[in-house]
Design goal:
Elements (H helix, E strand, L loop, with lengths): L1 E5 L4 H7 L4 E7 L10 E6 L11 E8 L3 H4 L4 E4 L13 E5 H7 L9 E4 L6 E7 L14 E5 L7 E8 L3 H15 L5 E5 L1 H4 L1 H39 L1 H9 L4 H31 L14 H27 L3 H6 L2
Parallel strand pairs: 4-9, 6-8
Antiparallel strand pairs: 1-10, 1-11, 2-10, 3-4, 3-7, 5-8, 6-9, 7-8
Helix pairs in contact: 6-9, 8-9
Amino acid sequence: ISACLVGSEMCIRDRVQTLPGIESASLSNTIPLSLDVSHTSLVAYGRPVPRPTETIGAIYYYAGPGFFHTLQTRLLEGREFTVRDTPDSPKVVVINKALAKRLFPNEDALGKRVRQGAGGEWRQIVGIVEDGKYQSLNDENQPAIFWPMFQRYENTTTLVARSHLPADQLISTLRKAVLSMDRSMPLFDVGTLEDHLALPLTPARLAASALGGFGFLAVLLAAIGVYGAMAYAVARRTREIGIRVAIGASKRNVLALVMRRSALLLAIGTLCGVGAALAAGRFFSAVLYGISPKDPVTYLLAIALMTGITLLACAIPAQRALAVDSATALREE
C-alpha cells in the first residue's frame, strides 16, 4: 500500500508501524516504476571530475528507515537508513549494485564517498542494495542512488506499508491513522502497489495479451495444418492399409507405421522451429520480463504441446482408416 501525504511529519511512520496487521512501513518521495522519476549526475571521491559527456548518471530517491525492508529489496552490503540519519549526523547514502560497479569498478564501494554533481556535499556509502526496476520493466543494470529522507525536508511524502490485511481494510486503517494525527493533512492517491503500477505496466500487459493471442492463433493454425496434412497422407494410404490388414497386420502395427512417419516429420519440424525461435528470440527480448528468450522450460513446453497435437492429429485419421473394411479399401484406386 502507498499513499501520498502533503506536509507530513516524520512521526507518521512510527504511528503506522504500530498499527495491527502492519508488517513494515517507511517513507519515500516516490516509488519505483512510478511516473515520477528523477535523475542526477554523480562524482566519486578520489576520481577526477568527469567531462559533461562522461558523467555517471543515476536515478535517485529519498527513502526513510526500513524502506528497503518494506519493499523487500535485498540489502547486499552495509545497512539501511535509520532514525539516527538526521540533518545533524554524518551525511550518508545507499546505492544499488549497478551504480557501485560504475563508480568503483573492481573495488568495494562500501564506505567510500560520492557527491551529487561537481559541487555537491560528500556522502559516505553505508549500504549497497540489489538492482531493481525503476523506470520500466526493461531496466537492466540501471544505476540508482538513495538519499536519507530524514536528512532532507520533503513537503510531499509517500507512505509505503506492507501488510497481510485485505487492501480495503488496510487503506481504511491508514486513512484513520493519518487523520487521527492531523485532520487537515491532505492524503491522496491511496492504493495498493498494483494500483499504482497499473499505468506503467499497461504497455507490458497489452503486449503480453497481443502476443498471447497471436500465440494461441498460431497453435490453432498449426493444429489444423498438421491434422489436415496427416489426414490427407493417411487417406492416400488407405489402400495400403487395407492390404496390410488383409494379410494379417494388426491395428497396432498399422498405428505404429503411421506414428513412425509422423515422428520423423515431427522431429524435422521441431529442429526447424527451435532454430527459428532461437534466431528470432533476440527481437522479442525487449518485451520479455523475468525470462530469457532461450528459456529451456519454455522450449520444452512448446515441444511437448506440438508433440501432443501431432500425435492426436495422426491418431484420428489412422483410426478412421482402420475402420474402413479391408475389401472396400482394396477395391479403391
